[in-house]
């Protein structure tokens, strides 16, 4: 009996090794839960070329936008766990259950994290007429003028809105949130002086900082952004542990074999180290950031806890 079990185990390990050595032996599908042309879509198409050359297999990008990225998440959560269907996971996907109570999958438990792939910071920007030049001065001004500052966002429940609510809860200030239908009209209002400030991505903010129409007070990621290297972080500005990044990562269905997840991690991390890819992404305001699969798992859980708390405290309604 013991011999038979050992023989079975040997055959199982042998077959697993052979399967891994051959993986991938057909095209790999990556579901992108965003519309074509956005930053996540552009990134994934650039990365897919690098990985495709290593694997000698095409990477098929399948755009499935809708329901705050949960439509694509549901497709991958229910896909075969064989490594041939992956999801470009987005930060907002980690709060799917609180945003969409009828969600048919668990955004944490139903995925096997592979690695984070890139992160885009936000810039805390204010209109140039506002008499503040640092985060500390903004906090003092807001406390002296409760409810008088208006900050815009691309809509209720967007990361620009969530960043504002996190900032308000961190420092205990009263700032009015003004949602717009997209970040572009909100930025137009900020430049025109109808808004006092907002959180937005460096490519949207920094050109107006250079022309003097806006002031960049801080970036929200733990490290300074390559596209706004002269701007301090929120942590450097006196807010320990304040970190916000619009991150994207790759995940597979939860039951995907560990050895396949590890191979995916190894190959993707190597592809992301390609200098030409790093440079082209930096020009788009994207900073490559990779993690081990277990690190990414812990990070996703911590993000879910953080943003779920913000949504509940601020009673955020998603558009």
What keyword list fits this structure?
single chain; alpha/beta; D-Maltodextrin-Binding Protein, domain 2; 2 domains; 5-stranded mixed beta sheet; 11 helices; 11 strands
Any chance you could write out the topology, listing elements then pairs?
Blueprint: H1 2-22, E1 28-32, H2 39-55, E2 59-63, H3 70-77, E3 85-90, H4 96-99, E4 111-121, E5 123-127, H5 135-144, E6 150-153, H6 159-171, E7 176-179, H7 183-192, E8 197-200, H8 202-210, E9 214-219, E10 245-253, H9 258-271, H10 275-283, E11 287-288, H11 293-314
Parallel strand pairs: 1-2, 1-3, 6-7, 6-8
Antiparallel strand pairs: 3-10, 4-10, 4-11, 5-8, 5-9
Summarize this structure briefly:
This protein has helices at residues 2-22, 39-55, 70-77, 96-99, 135-144, 159-171, 183-192, 202-210, 258-271, 275-283, 293-314; strands at 28-32, 59-63, 85-90, 111-121, 123-127, 150-153, 176-179, 197-200, 214-219, 245-253, 287-288. The chain has 319 residues and is an alpha/beta fold. It is globular and about 65 Å long.
């Amino acid at each position: 009996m013991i011999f038979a079990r050992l023989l079975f185990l040997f055959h199982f390990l042998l077959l697993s090794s052979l399967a891994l050595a051959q993986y991938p032996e057909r095209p790999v599908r990556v579901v992108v839960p965003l519309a074509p042309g956005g930053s996540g879509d552009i990134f994934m198409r650039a990365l897919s070329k690098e990985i495709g050359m290593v694997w000698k297999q095409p990477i098929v990008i399948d755009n499935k936008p809708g329901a705050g990225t949960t439509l694509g998440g549901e497709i991958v959560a229910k896909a075969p766990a064989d490594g041939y269907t992956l999801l470009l996971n987005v930060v907002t996907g980690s709060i799917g259950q609180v945003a969409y109570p009828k969600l048919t999958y668990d955004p944490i438990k139903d995925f096997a994290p592979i690695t984070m792939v890139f992160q885009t910071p936000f810039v805390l920007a204010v209109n140039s007429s506002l008499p503040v030049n640092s985060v500390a001065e903004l906090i003092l001004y807001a406390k002296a003028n409760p409810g008088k500052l208006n900050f815009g966002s691309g809509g209720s429940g967007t990361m620009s809105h969530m960043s504002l609510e996190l900032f308000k809860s961190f420092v205990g200030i009263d700032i009015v949130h003004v949602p717009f239908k997209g970040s572009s009209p909100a930025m137009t209002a900020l430049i025109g002086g109808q808004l006092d400030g907002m959180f937005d991505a460096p490519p949207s903010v920094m050109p107006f900082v250079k022309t003097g129409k806006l002031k960049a007070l801080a970036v929200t990621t733990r490290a300074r952004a390559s596209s706004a290297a002269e701007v301090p972080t929120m942590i450097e500005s006196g807010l320990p542990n304040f970190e916000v990044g619009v991150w994207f990562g790759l995940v597979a269905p939860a039951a995907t074999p560990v050895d396949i997840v590890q191979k995916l991690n190894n190959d993707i991390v190597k592809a992301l180290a390609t200098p030409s890819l790093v440079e082209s992404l930096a020009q788009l305001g994207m900073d490559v950031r990779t993690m081990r699969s277990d690190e990414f798992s812990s990070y996703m859980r911590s993000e879910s806890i953080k943003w779920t708390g913000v949504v509940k405290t601020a009673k955020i309604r998603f558009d």
